[in-house]
Design brief:
The complex is a heterodimer. Chain A is mostly helical. Chain A has 24 helices and two strands. Chain A has a domain at 3-8 and 41-208 and 223-305 and 394-469: Sodium/glucose cotransporter. By secondary structure, chain B is mainly alpha-helical. Classes of the chains: A mainly alpha, B mainly alpha. The interface between A and B is large, with 54 and 49 residues. Chain A: InterPro entries: Na/Glc_symporter_sf, Na/solute_symporter, Na/solute_symporter_CS, Na/solute_symporter_VC_2705, Sodium:Solute_Symporter.
Chain lengths: 590, 88
């Protein structure tokens, strides 16, 4: 059977599975629609959270990003896992005890203020929409790449699938579909990684393999990789803080902004509203991180092995010797196949029919290279190829390639669905029921929720097809805003009884304005950048990706100061705080 | 930490906050400490094919995060029972 047919069959089967689950788990109340009736077992919720969390970018792009950044890529590995420790200890159990439906609802109740709730909804909608636009784009790209359909067709198919299970099943449908999607995506990610690890080092465990010796020799993979990339003029793979790389303070702040941002993202927090008990919220944060770690500890192994494979495929012999480089005519099949997609391209600058792949931005090395007759780097490689081409590089059968396609689609769909649901609950529950028409019946609210999902899908699809200039910058935006606006006020709402309405609103607005302002200034979202986005211009050397960490600190400081000079929260709020801190409130008789 | 049952709330909360504080110190040390601030000195130490600082940044910190959540969840269940605030 040819690859194309097989891919259609595997992806088609996965869709049948998702839709089947959606029909089985149709939501019949707002409780089921928003929080799956609070009946999701912790292990299943952990799996759903992991699928929700790991987007198309995690699946397709992250390993490639690490492959080219080396040590610098660690910010994503630590940043996108460490937030779960904060969730498990600082937020999830207490928000579950609070026991209502949405994050803005908590902020509104705790700070006894409709304004606070509205500010939170605005943050939530902005964060989630920027994020979901990127996901829909991912859905379209995966479809068009693997199924060879137009981007628009791919986007419409993806929107249709999400539409069916998000509108019908609400949180309940999404949760159980995500469990299935997790299984598909983790299988698709780890199978090729295991085979590549085995071929390269003889060890089947990728996490061990990239610390092992390369087949047949007694040299360690990472040492050999450091050596060969350095010999080609790049910085060493494992070296910390190389010239032109990220500085220590920037690594620190980016990691912090990503961790805190993770814990402040509404579509992640709301997952912990769906479990039956407080203790399940803690356990399910642990399960979620376990399932996420399965991918996140394999990704750096894939990154280093892929970089090694790519480099040694091209540099077949001694660097600088006339026949040390791969003849273009003898390139392997996978290179030929991916050239057709434009993800890989070759330009024979010196006309010797061989591929030279090296760092021509390194002046000292370029001088040396010129003596060998190298006239510039001839191979350009898109980072996504590091995951997409893995099965072919490892020479795996076609069904594995088909599985990777299904995995990429699963990763994009599951994240998009989770985001769309929090947008819809923000609109139907926080805006409509919370502010516009408080008297709305449960049935009408449920209908409003469904309509809101449908409309959100259309807008997300439109943004995915016509991405505004800023889609590429959204990661910095979504995480920075979540870190600097929502996380601090939720945390203070639980751990302090003194922070009041005025403090919370001022804190959120300060964090939001500072972070948004800084990112716009350097990255020019909506407008042209005002200042060149280079390290010399940054405040304390912190890049826009990391500035959310500073915004968060400002939020804490402003909220504390303002709360000190204004009236303390009323008694019933202080009791509410005591109540959410305890899983079961003991009776006076005890 | 005491058998202060009529005031279970305050003692329970204090024990919880202490546990969180200890956990977050470890959380900080393995990621920001070993993985970022001290990565260069630690990279001088090699174990297997890994430089230690690099390993913490790309593997070790994640494993420690997992252990921290597991220990916290288990300890809190015990704490809930001790203070009589566990869910049935």
């Amino acid at each position: 059977m040819d690859l194309q047919t097989l891919t259609y069959i595997v992806v088609g089967l996965s869709f049948v599975l998702y839709i089947g689950i959606a029909i089985w788990s149709k939501a019949s109340s707002t409780g089921e629609f928003y929080v799956a009736g609070k009946g999701v077992p912790p292990l299943a919720n952990g799996m759903a959270t992991a699928a929700d969390w790991m987007s198309a970018a995690s699946f397709i792009s992250m390993a490639g990003l690490i492959a080219f950044l080396g040590y610098g890529g660690s910010v994503y590995l630590m940043g996108w896992t460490g937030g779960y420790v904060l969730l498990a200890m600082l937020l999830a159990p207490y928000l579950r005890k609070y026991g209502k439906f949405t994050v803005p609802e908590f902020i509104g109740d705790r700070y006894y203020s409709r304004t606070a709730r509205l500010v939170a909804v605005v943050c939530l909608i902005f964060i989630s929409f920027t994020y979901v636009a990127g996901q829909m784009r991912g859905v379209g790209i995966v479809f068009s790449r693997f199924l060879e359909v137009e981007l628009l067709t791919g986007l419409i198919i993806g929107m249709g699938i999400v539409f069916i299970y998000a509108v019908l099943g609400g949180m309940k449908g999404i949760t159980y579909t995500q469990v299935a999607q997790y299984c598909v995506l983790i299988l698709a990610y780890t199978v090729p990684a295991v085979f590549i690890a085995m071929q390269l080092t003889g060890s089947p465990i990728p996490q061990v393999a990239f610390g092992s010796t390369v087949g047949g020799s007694d040299t360690f993979l990472l040492d050999k990789l450091d050596q060969i990339v350095q010999d080609l003029g790049f910085t060493q793979y494992t070296a910390a803080y190389p010239e032109g790389g990220k500085s220590m303070i920037d690594m620190f702040c980016i990691t912090l902004a990503l961790m805190v941002g993770t814990a402040g993202l509404p579509h992640v927090i709301v997952r912990f509203f769906t479990v039956p008990r407080v203790r399940d919220a803690r356990a399910s944060a642990g399960w979620a991180l376990l399932f996420i770690a399965l991918l996140y500890t394999v990704a750096p192994a894939v990154g280093s092995m892929a970089r090694y494979n790519l480099t040694t495929t091209v540099q077949t012999g001694e660097i600088g010797s006339p026949d040390g480089n791969l003849l273009y005519a003898e390139r392997p099949d996978w290179m030929e196949r991916w050239e057709a997609t434009g993800l890989l391209s070759f330009e024979d600058k010196n006309g010797d029919g061989r591929i030279q792949y090296y760092n021509d931005n390194n002046p000292a090395f370029q001088e040396q290279a010129s003596e060998w007759g190298w006239q510039g780097n001839e191979l350009s490689v898109d980072r996504d190829i590091m995951v997409l081409a893995n099965p072919e590089i490892a020479g795996l059968p076609n069904w594995v390639i088909a599985l990777v396609a299904a995995g990429g689609i699963a990763a994009a769909l599951s994240t998009a669905a989770g985001l769309l649901l929090v947008i819809s609950s923000g609109i139907s529950h926080d805006l409509l029921k919370g502010a516009v028409t408080p008297g709305i019946s449960e049935k009408s609210e449920l209908m409003a929720g469904r309509i809101a999902v449908a409309v959100a899908i259309l807008i997300a699809g439109y943004l995915g097809y016509n991405p505004p200039g800023f889609v590429a910058q959204v990661v910095a935006f979504a995480f920075g805003l979540a870190a600097s606006s929502l996380f601090p006020v939720i945390l203070m709402g639980i751990f302090s009884k003194k922070i009041n309405r005025e403090g919370a609103i001022a804190g959120m607005l300060t964090g939001l304005a500072f972070t948004m302002g800084y990112i716009i200034l350097y990255k020019g979202v909506f407008i042209e950048p005002v200042i060149d986005n280079v390290p010399e211009n940054w405040l304390f050397g912190i890049s826009p990706e990391g500035i959310g960490a500073v915004g968060m600190v400002l939020n804490f400081i402003v909220a504390t100061l303002i709360s000190k000079i204004t009236a303390a929260p009323p008694d019933h709020i202080q009791h509410m705080v005591e109540d959410i801190r305890t899983p079961r409130v003991t009776t006076a008789a005890e | 930490m005491s058998d202060n049952s009529e005031n279970g709330g305050a003692a329970y909360w204090k024990a919880n906050v202490t546990l969180i504080a200890v956990s977050l110190v470890i959380w900080f040390v393995v990621s920001y400490g070993f993985g970022i601030l001290l990565v260069e000195p630690l990279n001088a130490i090699e174990f297997g094919g890994f430089k230690l600082g690099f390993w913490f940044a790309q593997q070790g910190a994640i494993y420690v995060f997992l252990i921290l959540i597991a220990v916290y969840a288990i300890r809190m269940n015990a704490l809930d029972r001790k203070h009589g605030v566990d869910e049935q």
